[in-house]
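Why do we care about 3D structure at all? Because function follows from shape, and shape follows, mostly, from sequence. That is the central idea of this module. The next example makes it concrete: a single protein chain, its amino acid sequence, and then its structure expressed as tokens.
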Amino acid sequence: MLECGHRDSSDGDLSFKTTNSTNSSMSSDSCSSYSRISFELLASRSSPENLSLKPHHSSDLAYSAIRSATFRRKSGLTHRDFRLIRRIGSGDIGTVYLCSLTREHNKKYREEDYDEEEGEEEDDRLCFYAMKVVDQEALAVKKKVHRAEMEKKILKMLDHPFLPTLYAEFEASHFSCIVMEYCSGGDLHSLRHRQPYKRFSLSSARFYTAEVLVALEYLHMLGIIYRDLKPENVLVRSDGHIMLSDFDLSLCSEAIPAVESPSFSPNSTSPSAFPYTRSHSSKTFSCPLNRLFRSKKIQTLGPNRLFVAEPVAARSCSFVGTHEYVAPEVASGGSHGNAVDWWALGIFIYELIYGRTPFAAASNELTLRNIVKKPLSFPTHSPSSSLELHARDLISGLLNKDPNNRLGSKRGSADVKSHPFFKGLNFALIRTVTPPEIPGLRRQKTATFHQAKPKSTAFDYF
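And the structure:
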């Protein structure tokens, strides 16, 4: 049985008890109405000892406010420490709300950490968060509790500038709540629709692809296969850089870190072909680089050596993903592994550049048939520039229907990064590159989080 979950962000009826209010303290250009959850039972608290907060930069005011509130409570935060502002999205397993700490926490935080400026509006001093609320009883009926648990498990593992920071987690009645970063710039799907001809320039597509590639590289180092890459799940922070979201369809496996030469043959089975392969990592695979570079032998490696940590042994028979983005091995009902993320990256690049996905059809069934059987084609016969020529070559390598020959399937990001499409780009310094569009801090505080009606559905079949 195929289950489809529409990613609807409209303000329809909620699937749990709510109380409507129009007394929003947001500024005049924000939503004037919102829904507040009415929890009927006592909440279990989130203990500071059980949740390790990880700020990605020293000026993370949202982290500082949460840290101050967490240690002030001592016994942990609950839903009563947060003020829901409005709903900003909903998915197959939960609803996401824009929220802030209560005025009591914000007042104490301001008094402790900095002086107030007279005449400044209160909302301009608030830090905003995204709270994902999951109805555990509803998920139990749909037999999807494991998906919510998997997302929470993965969020606790992450510590990367292009991935979410988990600020707090707690239970309230039969609801499970996780508090994460709020991205004020919307998602790349909405941003693409605001571009001329509803597609990004080659340079913009190159930038966003590079940041997504770095995020995928980190996930694969941890042994996590994302399995739901698409523009709707790539959020834009206030500084214009990206953040991947939604990990409930992800698969946890293991990665074997190794250092290889560019001429290394991944198909070789000779023991000498893996001179620098390290031992298996744990499922939480922490700091592989630190372990690797403790070795004097590896410290003296030549500049052409590549660090590789790809979960090549991971296998799953689950039928998961979004129709237009699933790989042929998934569409045909077979087992799959890490290569599905590299296929999805190829579809992702194609959509950013050309404004549509290459195998989309009038129905989901026809789309899946095209993915399996239809050859890849591009809107025009000839590319308009050398950069587009490189982009097409990269897309063709990623959209190889044979997962064993697909670019990235053996050495992951190490092979994808070396493609001429990224020539001259320093991945290690990508955070210092000015993004194509910067939403700005003011928008983070006041603008409505826009999400267009989804053009496809996410599904899972177990």
